[in-house]
Structures
1.
Amino acid sequence: MSFSSRVKDELSRQLSPARHCQIAEMTAILTLCGKVQISQNDRYRVKISTENAAVARKYFTLLKKTFNIGTDVSIRQGAENHRSRIYTVCVCSHEDSIRVLQAAKLIDRYGQVEENLSLAQNVVIMQNCCKRAFIRGAFLAAGSISDPERFYHFEIACASEAKAVQLQGLILAFGLDAKIVKRKKYFVVYIKEGSQIVDILNVMEAPVSLMELENIRILKEMRGSVNRQVNCETANINKTVSAAVKQIEDITFIRDTVGFDTLPENLQEIAGLRLSKPEATLKELGEGLEPPVGKSGVNHRLRKLSAIAERLRETYPGPQA
């Protein structure tokens, strides 16, 4: 089971105790994957279709708990993928359909279906707890989360821009940076920051999935930190080795051209020590001198030797036979 499926499974089993939150969650599912059918004699039917059994189970449970109404549930094979299944939950009774639509504020007092909800006016999502429930239902109906082992991406696809803007506003109300992008015929509300996806899981009240994502994030950050440290140490080692090789080349050139006797005593000492200890660090070289010298002092002497070698190369084409 994918991480996204595990999140939906957890959310499908979480039921708000308050009726108004149950209505808000049901409303989100209905507006994002539902249809209102009106017959020629103005009889209403309300149904949702989904490929996720957890979503169908949650919608069925919400209708039963909130309205105590019966529903027809059917399962059929997907048209494009024969291994997939389409779950349909239908409220076939006209009276029950009207009750559902009125509770969700999807029908006005004249019996006209209102396609889009208004953040400012709709009482279904006025309270914070109801906003949480609505976001939870929207994710169940049309959302997905990428595998956090690979990358971080949370999204909910909406059929219209108005619905996407409404959903974005709800998410923004919790201080999260949700954006909208048009993808084919859908308007997708998405979050890409790992820490913010953790926060949206908290908003939707999915503590188990939240902890799983946090554990993955911690491990990924630890691996990244270790890799950066290893890369940094490797770079430092390469830099140290390259510097030591250049120092030995310079010292060898001086020895093979004019000899160490032409050097001051302190440079003779460090030159001989570097040749005898090619793998030693500056600190180790300094500790091997008498009296001991700090890293900056050792580096200063080696720079002097390098400058002498460069001047000699202008006079001598290479080591003398």
2.
Amino acid sequence: MARLLACFLAQDGHPVVLLDHLPNAPETEDTRLYALSPLSLQILETHGLYSELGPKRCRVFSDLEIWVYHEPTRVRFSASDIGGFLLGGLVYARDLNRVLMERVSELGIPTHRFDPDQLERTSQGWVIGTGDAAFQASLLVVAEGSHSRLRERFRIPVETRDYGEEALTFGLATEHDLGSTPRQVFTPWGPLGLLPAPDGTLSGVWSMPAVRAREWLNRSAPSFEALLSEATEGMGGRLSLLAPPRSFPLRCLHAQTYVGDRLALAGDAAHVIHPFAGQGLNLGFLDACALADDLKRSGDGSEAALRRVLMRYDRRRRRENQKFLLALEGVRMLFRKPDLLGLRALMLGALAQVALLRRPWVRRATGSQGRRLLVP
């Protein structure tokens, strides 16, 4: 997120320095797969980055299928529901990061390793570093992820909720080709997302209570594969793990303000959501766009103008993200509870049959909401 925003600001003519104090994971170990919305793809295209990914590193899809374990109705959301061509693209984190690093280099954006404790607030902004290596900045954007040391240092209040869950992530090879359609099945053990990766494998994310996740991590590969086959009701034929599953704890986090004195939060430093909808990175993309756009129109660059920019950014993005978090929690609870009255089955049946009912869901999920969708 920090690299993306740095590229946006540099392309708009702002002097930018990229600060990095987090160790980089080896690319061979980073198997995260991002689901980018059409709007996120359009943002990349506008800045000349989408073409750098290309079809070999970004697998686009036009349909999304969801269902509830052992319930007959399957709902297929389609780009055609809103007159579009695609619902999104799937890209490995390592590939997206590589493209962004190359653009940072092309734009000549300096990157400095720094100690977060070597950061001081002054009347003119910030002094970063010490001695001859120190430099000044008028604005500090914190986009260092959910465990932000700077957010904690500046005591920006956050609302958090521990789901008591962990997400198991893993790669799969399938006996039968499942095409490019991502799938989400709400199992009795937790929501299971299956994403077709650009390299032809399948990437899985299975959220479940933490106790169960830790127990299942210790299962043998054949035992875990049997659980997956049961959860997916035999879809894809034989499923084979490509590597042992990994896990990470799940929580919800939302900063009570996204801004401070010459300071702004963006991406996971400002908000963290449940991964079952795959929208976390897309919200961060919109943060970056909104902040870059507001700074572009900031006027004379005075302290008063910067304060107005930050207040506008906070008002726009915190409100929009809060609305999304609430909607997402409602959907999560809908599929988490037993359908004792049959209301969920009735709703899914209506969604499966009536495209008009699916449109608001598709618009919200894709981020289109009246905007033009990218044509691949």
3.
Amino acid sequence: MENIAVLGSTGSIGTSGLDVIAKFPDRFKICALSANTNVELLRKQAKIYKPEAVCVGEMRRDKGRWGGIRVYEGESGLLEMLENLKIDTVLVGIAGSSALLPILTVLDRVKKMALANKEALVMAGSLIMDKAAKNNVKIMPVDSEHSAIFQCIGSNNRKDLKKIFLTGSGGPLLKVKKSGFKDITVKQAINHPRWKMGKKISVDSATMMNKGLEVIEAAWLFNTEIKNIEILIHPEAVVHSMVEFTDGAVLAQMGACDMRLPIQYALTYPERSASGIKSPDFSKIKSLTFYKPDFERFPCMGLAYDAGKKGGTFPSVLNASNETAVKEFVEGRIRFVDIPKVIGRVLRLHKGVKDPGLLDILEADKWARIKTKEMLRCCR
């Protein structure tokens, strides 16, 4: 029986993860759940799964009604909970940079990490991968694209890997002309055609920053250079990614657009079990199309490639500036087209630290957020 902690249990990854875990009652025992603001849903989950402990971002109501479950609060409480419990496996569904410190903390405790957060790897890939290697922790990617890459590589020697093709549907604005971007609303930006996700990642899909962040994530997960990772637009979203080997062979992973598939694979690896998820009907798929992305219409991808190649603290600045700008857009204070503009300006101002430690990364993150807000105030 594996003790499993689900971080971000009330979000889309967390709820899908709980659906998967519930199918394996003889294998997994949920020992901890965490959520930021959705306390009521967390209470319902705690009543069903009966963990040893839960953590909330902020206790907004009476601390009672938890049925004897230990309750932690805030970022410090989450770190304390992770240090106090016996955890074998952790599913990280926390969104954004706030996952970094919990990830670094829990890597000292677990045997396996199912990782659905890309921002932490973008910020501090070297620190995370080094710590995982030191503690012999298996990091299993949960992003559909990175799970696909992992499945395609399989037991092949990583030295045989020549190129990674990172596919993307193109997001909700794929067919919108560049001239129309200045009028894009939040509702349009979060209306993803294939996946149901939170607002931040949905906006990232609209700007295609999501693909750029995934390029940096893939470089760390699969120990390859940024130049060996190519983004391909694939509107049908049947092929979740592909890899090419040195002999010219290309392998692709295909499946339904359902996050429960990569979550289950990450949690039960190396085993495969029935998921109950309907597979694509290939007789009804008339074509599978692939084409190169438009870096002029979606400049966030180019910003991510550049930051990834520079390395050091540049990816941390990229991520922090993006998170800040997206929040401003979602809250109606800036236009959609302002997002890549301000990120580019902040990156150009950054001096960079070549081989950063944690404090350097956190300082770069803080600087980028302040600088982004300053620039956006000037734009209003």
4.
Amino acid sequence: MSDIQCPVCSSKLETAPTPHQKYDALTYDCPQCGKYVLEEFADTNRELYDSKQLISAWIRLQNKRGNNGPFISANFSKEDWFKNLRNMGFPQTVNEKLDGLLKAYADIVRDDYDKMVKTIQHPTLISDIAGKNYEEIKGLNRLLAELEYLWSEPSHPNEHIRITAKGWQRIDNLLKPSYSSDLAFIAMWYDPSLDNYRESVKKAITVCGYEPIIIDDVDFNDFIMDEVIQFIRQARFLILDLTCSPEIDIQANSKVIRGVRGGVYWEAGMAYGLGKTVIQTCRDDDCSKRRIHFDLSQYQTIFWKQDELTTEIRPFSSHISNPTFTERLAQRILATVGKGNYIAPG
């Protein structure tokens, strides 16, 4: 244990920060926040101190989403992620923090229903709920115990806890999936340049046990958006591709074509609003990557290149070195959604 404190949450670091190989910055590994890179002199900024709870929660969230080491620049207060911290959905009310903490305990326990959790050993709980400190966790534990969601060991009240049957019922309601089928909806640009992508994504989805749905493959008589809404409601998850091309202004009808895919943003918003899992992909080119809007740039995106699109997937029973995009997508589906029951015909 070093004597150095995390500049964000003030926790003592187990190891000293290390110089970053590329930037004039230090890489921190905080027991509460997680890993992050902080540019030199950023820790002297008053705004970092004033918003440290939310910044710590943001770092923790980035780590959980696979961004193991988000970069915080010296001018972070001018960046979009910082300006929108209070609109990112971190727990704010007591009820939100109670539910968030209960779900965090479920993540720790998993299926070991008799497991006793010593909260002091899990400093990440503080950032999981955008909390102030360990004392707040103890106070919330007491409230959860009064609700009969937690049981506390008498010798260590509100510190050594176990989830009760009533608590598991509450967790089940909080995490209850909102799907009714093994459908997977694909929101993408319907352009011939993405034909190989289309087949690659379909293959990844079917291998994982789901039926891929692309709206232009479906025969229907009703209004197209009614069909889109219906499929998104039914879908287990949504694949969202953000690939686009430079805008073209067609003067004949005064309509700008190509550009950012406004339709997929609409579909993503609906899916997120319904609590669906959304897996983002995008072609690995500067045009597409620069046009990803801030609202979705917070989420991890699987980038792909044309030469790694394939309909061949190696067995996952052994380690796959240098996985293709199709294999990476299939692995993400299995990791975040699980295996479905759909069997492709033939």
